[in-house]
Amino acid sequence: MTNPLVFFAPSGKRGRFPEGTSVLEAARKLGVDLDSVCGGRGICGRCQIEVGDGKFPKLGIVSATDHVTEWNAVEERYVSKRGPLGEGRRLGCQAKLCADAVIDVPPDSQVHRQVVRKSAAVRDIAIEPVVALHYVEVREPDMHDPSSDFRRLQEALEQQWGLRDITAPLESLRLLQWSLRQGKWSVTVAVRHKHEIVGIWPGLHEQGVGLAVDIGSTTIAAHLCDLASGEVLASSGVMNPQIRFGEDVMSRVSYVMMNPGGDAELTASVREAIGELAVAVTKEVGLQSNDILEMTVVANPIMHHLFLGLDPTELGGAPFALTIDGAYQTRAAHLSLPLSSGAYVYVLPCIAGHVGADTAGVVLSEGPYLRPEVSLLVDVGTNAEIVLGNRERLLACSSPTGPAFEGGQISSGQRAAPGAIERVRIDPATLEPRYKVIGSDLWSDEAGFTQDTAGTGVTGICGSGIIEAIAEMLLAGLITPDGVVDGSLAARTPRVEADGRTFRYLIREGEPRIAVTQNDVRAIQLGKAALYAGVRLLMDRYGVTTVDRITLAGAFGSHIDVKHAMILGLVPDCELDKVGSAGNAAGTGARIALLNASARREIEDVVRRIEKIETAIEPSFQAHFVGAMAIPHKTDPFPQLEAALGVTFKRGGRGESETGRGGRERRRRG
User: Fold this and answer.
1) Greater model confidence, 666 or 402
2) Residue 222 parent element (H or E)
3) Cβ-contact 526, 472 below 8 angstroms
4) For the chain, what percent of residues have pLDDT higher than 70?
């Protein structure tokens, strides 16, 4: 067997791989930006590539289309179901190397640069340092006192700071003698939990910093904080590099199951990304990553396990057993992170097999366990995490919403990136749409829109955009409460088009042509019905028919318009001014745990008391799901939403304004 040389354009990366290696696998190993949603099953079609044909003297490669394996049955199946690939294209997961090849990754097959919307929210946090700096002056050694440098340092800390029984790891001890002499017998030490030295500097060192990290399935966000003041010094985010192994968490579990050693690859990739973030945020403020003394982490259960180097395969099926569910801490060095030699990493506790440390972070941030009112917390994503309750009792569950809310399974869907439609409005009189895209403040019908979006163009529609589009279609009468696109309106507007035996609504003409198809509506209905059914399951178990407050959490939840989310039936009826977004509440929870030692004990105690509900074994889940397929719901009332909009949602008919079309127009102008 030979080891063909493969060169990827436009990345410029190359490498040799055993004959029979798929192009997608080679791309992953080289870190090439080749998209894949389905984890290499030949279903999504995102990994399309082109094989170069000819001589490439500068590369020393002769490439030809037959230098990869022939077209196969999986590609044939894809074409039969989804339509032809672009001219000369192959699926990278199916084309396997036979000889040297130049592979071109077209722009539409590259993982789009993610808009990382996980900036640090302004928040008052009580500071109770986990790690504190102490400047001490140490007695010099002499021939009459044989005590060690460390013994004299311990004495100085007790005398000057009242700290007793101080210990130090070997990593800190290695710096001790040099630091004492360099600082002329004065040093600054970082002491963790008033007990262990985790950092040491010659002379006076005035700032200790820590890092709060939120590991999401799509993005990783990091916030560098001053441990004494709580100030966020710098924030940054990157795409989670594990995406090249599978876009959703279950496809990554599948990758681990199908590829021996795959878990180590996934672990290494996420730790490397966090290390790079640590370098980036410290460099931004003139520090180095080894200045970081403490790090906290929140993540969903599968990201949690992969970060810690734990096998996630048990989380791929019932009963979804976690290796560990409590809070966990270990040295950063054990995780190969480039932090201070004595730094620790603290990972918040997981709640259940699909309700992770990120949800614990949301609970810590929002504090429903401190309030008398019944609050609903929802972190919307491929798998929605839901928490309901108050200071008396808390319940939690997860619900499999699928990828539609993040642009997956949508005909023109994509993740939130520049050029993606994120806001939609439809005029109920003319049925004409207008929209906004990420990267522009202008609406599509405003002067200058084309010039303002020239850099990216309009590339597709993301989750918040598709939610608003379908909600607006309901208000305009373009779809029925059952989610059927009303084909009779084709006589009234060319925007309603035949699409086989169903109809679609055209949002944008041109290239790309963006429409909401009947299948798109169904995908969103399935996702929102699963989420709503999970919410109602918790409400039933708690014994309430309404909630006092609703908070949408997460980067995606923070960009959903709450009114449109309720019109869609994503969440139950509630006063609109009591429905809000917490932004990146999980990341805020990580910051609280970074800056406040008591908060760690608090969230550990709260998580132990949360009642976990498994939706898969609850008989009433299916009934709630069926009712929630209607928009906004088949039977559940939405009186507060209807009052706010001046609309009555008729079951089995169109949503119609109580005051007619003029009422809708007045509502929109308002």
Assistant:
1) 402
2) strand 219-226
3) no
4) 93
- Dist. CA 95–CA 98, nearest whole Å: 9
Residue 331 CA to residue 227 CA, distance in Å, equals: 18
Q: What is the DSSP letter of 584?
A: S
Scan for tokens 């009642």, then name that residue: 611
Strand partners, 135: 188
Kind and range of the H or E element at 150? helix 149-161
Residue 570: closest CA among 552, 555, 548: 552
Reported confidence tier of residue 555, pLDDT bands at 50, 70, 90: low
- Per-residue pLDDT for 118 more than 70? no
Structure token pair of residue 156: 């100085």
Give me 554's structure tokens: 């997460």
Angle at the Cα of 572 from the Cα atoms of 566 and 578, rounded to 5 degrees: 75
pLDDT grade for 444, boundaries at 50, 70 and 90: very high
Residue 145: which residues within 8 A CB-CB, separation 6 or more?
139
255-310, pLDDT tens digit by residue? 898 888 889 999 999 999 999 999 999 999 999 999 999 999 999 999 999 999 99
pLDDT average, residue stretch 507-514: 92
> Residue 495 and residue 507: Cα distance in Å, rounded?
7
Q: Copy the structure tokens of residue 539.
A: 């409400």
C-alpha 58/C-alpha 428 separation (Å) is 59
Give the H/E segment covering residue 361: helix 357-366
d(CA 136, CA 158): 10
Structure tokens at 76: 């044939």
**DSSP annotation of 586:** H
Number of Cβ atoms within 10 Å of the Cβ of 276: 17
Q: What is the DSSP-derived secondary structure letter of residue 545? A: S
CA dihedral 570, 571, 574, 577 (to 10 degrees): -70
Q: What is the DSSP string of 378-403?
A: EE-SSSEEEEEE-SS-EEEEEE---G
Average pLDDT, rounded, for the chain: 89
Q: What is the dihedral of CA 238, 244, 250, 253, to 10 degrees?
A: -110
Q: Is residue 489 scored above 90 in pLDDT?
A: yes
Q: What strands, in cross-sheet order, belong to the sheet with 101-104?
A: 13-16, 5-9, 101-104, 48-51, 89-91
649 pLDDT higher than 90: no
Backbone φ and ψ of 332, nearest 5°: -60, -35
- Helix 585-595 and helix 357-366: axis angle, to 10°? 80
pLDDT at residue 501 tops 50: yes
Of 130-134, 372-376, 399-403, where does mean pLDDT reach its minimum?
399-403
The label of the residue with tokens 């579990």 reads 253
* 531 CB-near residues (< 8 Å, 6+ apart): 378, 380, 384, 386, 399, 401, 570, 571
Taking the C-alpha atoms of residue 579 and residue 566, their distance in angstroms, rounded to an integer, is 9
For residue 22, give the DSSP letter. B
Region of 56 (left: φ > 0; alpha: ψ -120 to 50; beta: rest) is beta
As beta bridge partners, residue 142 has 145
pLDDT of residue 37: 55
Question: Are the C-beta atoms of 480 and 632 separated by less than 8 Å?
Answer: no
Residue 664 carries which DSSP code? H
Contact assessment for residue 304 and residue 367, using Cβ atoms and an 8 Å cutoff: no
